[in-house]
Amino acid sequence: MPADPPGPRVRGGPRDAAAHRARKRFGQHFLHDPAVVARIAAAIAPGPDDTLVEIGPGTGALTAALLDAAGTLHAVEIDRDLARVLDERFGERGLRLHQGDALDFDFAALATGPASLRVVGNLPYNISTPLVFRLLRARDVIRDMHFMLQREVVTRMAAPPGGRDYGRLSVMVQLHCRVEALFRVGPGAFTPAPRVDSAVVRLTPRATLPLTGTRLEDFGRLVTAAFARRRKTLRNALGGLREPAQMVAAGVDPTVRPETLSVADFVALTLAGEGPVGT
Asked: pLDDT tens, 8-42?
């Protein structure tokens, strides 16, 4: 869905955030612990010249803290009732509210130039991975991202090669960003409490990438194929995509498993091919 015009006003509906019941279809778990809110805000450290975009502000616990310091704050909220509550609470304070689905939202439309957006959010667990991948495609206009995610997802994002947590998500995110797992958040910080621990992660897009255009697409296909058969040797996992001789030329042993390869190894494998990776 295209971005709404800056600062649309939404009227009517529930007037009290406390009266809003979390909706399972939206994966809602509302942050309420003021100590956790303060810790997240301190990690983000918004400044008066910053343009922030908060995804899924919910009842506005973090929104309030960000508005106190940020120059401009956009919020993308899918729940119409919550959008009305947020508008009533923060509209006069300058919150620029966009009611819609973050998976369809054009984040680049809010940018004022390269690396001009700072994206934050307590992301619903059921859409966190596809949403992060969507944002990676807009990396050129993003300065950094701070997300509350399921702790397991943050562990996978930050995982080094060689362990069971290292996989496609690790490689794809680490190619695009520097990943910093900041701190854990327990279930009690939310209403309703989730059944798993959460964690806050900082993703900082890299200034340049070693691959662009079709080669970047090739990289994604290679990584996906490799981890679809992660218990196989690389020779077998990438059969038909890269020949053993190409692997050797890239400095990669064809007999190892995909989970032992670094991001740089996958880049080398991508560059070792003479044409686009097959499907």
From this structure: 333 333 344 444 454 444 445 778 899 999 999 99
Give the model confidence (pLDDT) of 86-123 as tens digits. Answer: 999 999 999 999 999 999 999 999 999 999 999 999 88
Question: Given phi > 0 = left and psi -120 to 50 = alpha, else beta, which region is 121?
Answer: left
Distance from C-alpha of 161 to C-alpha of 104, rounded to nearest angstrom: 32
Q: What's 4's DSSP letter? A: P
pTM assigned to the model: 0.87
Distance (Å) of CA 48 to CA 51, 133, 187, 215:
8, 28, 32, 38
CA atoms lying within 13 Å on the CB side of residue 241? 22
CA torsion sign, 100 to 105 to 110 to 116? positive
Q: What is the pLDDT of residues 62-87, one digit of tens each?
A: 999 999 899 999 999 999 988 999 99
Question: What tokens were used for 130?
Answer: 């596809």
Task: Spell out the residues 6+ positions from residue 169 whose beta carbon is closer than 8 angstroms to its own.
Answer: 129, 153, 156, 157
Distance CA 77, CA 98 (A): 6
State how beta strands 51-55 and 72-77 pair. Answer: parallel
Alpha-carbon distances, residue 8 vs 43, 56, 86, 272 (angstroms): 29, 16, 12, 50
Judge contact between 147 and 198, C-beta under 8 A: no
